[in-house]
Specification:
There is one protein chain. The chain is mostly helical. Helix content is 55%, strand content 0%. α1 crosses α2 and α1 crosses α3. It starts with a helix and ends in a 9-residue tail after the last helix.
């Protein structure tokens, strides 16, 4: 499974669970808060970060896994990926 750095940052901002790189998350947070945020300030802004990232989080689109989609189209419904 692959995510862009931005998608990982958005998911981190909305869930509070760090996935991806801290630098990407920090860059995204600075962007949505419209100001540089010091790392030790993040817990104080947790609710605001979550709220401001909500629209971006909802906008992440799910694309079908090519391998699973190809197997389904070939009729391999017993494939372990389903």
């Amino acid at each position: 499974m692959a995510l862009t750095k931005r998608e990982a940052a958005i998911i981190t901002a909305h869930t509070g669970i760090l996935i991806g790189e801290m630098d990407s998350f920090k860059e995204y947070v600075d962007e949505i808060l419209e100001r540089p945020l010091l790392t030790h300030e993040i817990p104080n802004f947790e609710n605001e970060i979550k709220e401001r990232s909500k629209e971006d989080f909802i906008a992440i689109t799910v694309t079908p896994d090519i391998e699973i989609n190809d197997a389904y189209e070939r009729g391999e419904k017993n494939n372990e990926n389903f």
